Amino acid sequence: MPSGEQQHVALLSMRDVRKVYPSGTVALSGVDLRVGAGEVVGLVGANGAGKSTLIKVLSGAIAASDGAIEWEGQPQSWSSPADAQAAGVATVYQHIPLAHTLSVLENVFLGRTGWRRTTAALERELDQLLERIGYRIDAHAPVEELSIGQRQMVAILQGIAQGAKLLVLDEPTASLARGEREVVFEAVRRLSASGTAVLYVSHFLDEILDLTDRVTVLRDGRVVADEVTAELSEDALVHTIVGRELLRVEQREIDLPPADAPLLLEVEDLRSGDRLQGVSLQLRAGEIVGVAGLLGSGRSELLHAIFGADPNASGTVRIDGRTLPRSPRAAVAAGVALVPEDRGRQGLFADFEIWRNASIADLPSLSRGRALPDVELERERARDAIGALKIKAPGPDALVGELSGGNAQKVVFAKWLYSGARVFLLDEPTAGIDIGAKADIVELVRDLARRGAAVLVADSEFSELLAVSHRVMVLRRGQVVAERVSGETSDHELVSLASGLEKEMQRAA
Length: 509
Known about the structure:
Strand order of the largest sheet: 6-7-8-3-9-10
Structural class: alpha/beta
CATH topology of the largest domain: Rossmann fold
Number of helices: 19
CATH superfamily of the largest domain: P-loop containing nucleotide triphosphate hydrolases
Number of domains: 2
CATH architecture of the largest domain: 3-Layer(aba) Sandwich
Shape: globular
CATH class of the largest domain: Alpha Beta
Strand content: 15-25%
Helix content: 25-40%
C-alpha cells in the first residue's frame, strides 16, 4: 500500500474526458480519473461502461473528443502510444502482444538491444527487475513456449523496464489459473510499495477489493463512484456497477435430457501429443457438459481438436453417428460451432460491422440464389440478434471493434445461433466480461440446451460450470481424471481433482 505522502501526489489526472465515435456510439460522457504515485486504483464497470475506451485514451491509442489530461501536474495530449510510453505510462492488455519467436530477455528489452547494450548487461538489469517484483523466469526461454501466466509477467516486466511510473493492467488475470493470479497480485503489491502506480482493470471483484486502494466505477460512460476500497463491501460495489440488485448466477437444478435423447456428439480416444491423451466423451441433445481443468490441462485443445482445428490430432469424432472429417469446414457443415477463448483473433472480424459478423457463418441462406449476398437480409438478421441477445449497440452498422467484451461475445454467439448448429463448443465463454453479461451468457447456454443442442463448455471458473452444466468432466494433463454430476459436487472438489490435490490427500490418508 502506498504511504500517506504518496497518496496525495497526483501522478495522473483526467478531467471531463469524452469520446464519441463516428458511428454515433458515445463511449465516454465526461469522465474524471485520478491516480496518485504508488497508488493502486481499481477501474470497474459493466461491459460497455467505457473502461476500454478510457484506457485507450490514457495510453494514447485513440484521441479523446474533449477533456483534459494532466501528467505530473502538466497538461498532456499524447498522439500515440509511444508518446504515453515515453512519459511513463505502460499498458498491458488482456491479449498480450509479445514477439513469440523471441526470448524473454529480447521481449523485455525490445528495441533496446544494440552495440551499446550487451547481453550480460541486459541480463543483470532483468535480474534487478525480477528481484523488484519477486519473480523468477528463464531469460532465454522463447516466449512461444511459455504459459499464459508467464507471458503476462513478461509483459509486466516489459512495462517496468521502460521506466513506467503508471502501469495499466487490463484484465490481467482473466485467463490465468489461481496460482498464476497470486503471482500477479504479489507483483502489483511490490510495485506499489516501490512507488509505481497501478490502474487495475478487472471483472473479478474479489481482486479489486483485495488489491486496490481506491475504486473508480464507470457506468454508461460516466463515473458513478470513486471510493476508498476499505469502505466498500462486495454487495455495495456490485450494486454500484450494475445500478440494480445483481441477479446472481446460481447453481440450480437443470432438467436432464431424456435418457433416449439422440446422441449428437461422440468422441473416442482423441489424442494430440502430450496435450490430449485418449479423451472420450458423449453428449446427447439437450445436454450441457462442463470441462473443468487448470491452465495446461488440455481444455482448449480438446475443443479445437473436436472442431478439426488441430492437424496433429488423432481419434474419432462422430456427429449424429457419422464420422467427422478432420477440418473446421467439415465441422461447420455438420452443425458444429466453436466459440473460441480468444474472440478477438479467432471469433470475430473487429473491423467489420455487427451485421457482417452475425451472418458470416450462414451466408448461403442470406444470399440470392445462394450466391449473391443480400445485405438487407444480413442487416435484418443482425437487428434480430441485437434484440434477442440484448447486444448494447446503436445498430447493426456498429463496428464490432467498438463494442465491449461482453457485447462482442454475444456477436460471436449470434454468428452461430442462426447457422443451424446443433453442437456448441464453448471455450471460456464468459472470460473478461462483466457480471451482468455473464448472467446473460449463462442463460443463453441454458437456452441452447432447451432448444435441443448439445453443449460442451470449458471454463476456468468452476462455480460457473456447476451453475450451467448437467455434469462435469475434469481434465488433468490431457486426460479425463474424473466425472461428476453437477448437483453432487462442489467447486472445491473440482479444484482438488483438477490440481491433483485429492489424489495426494488420498495417498496421505
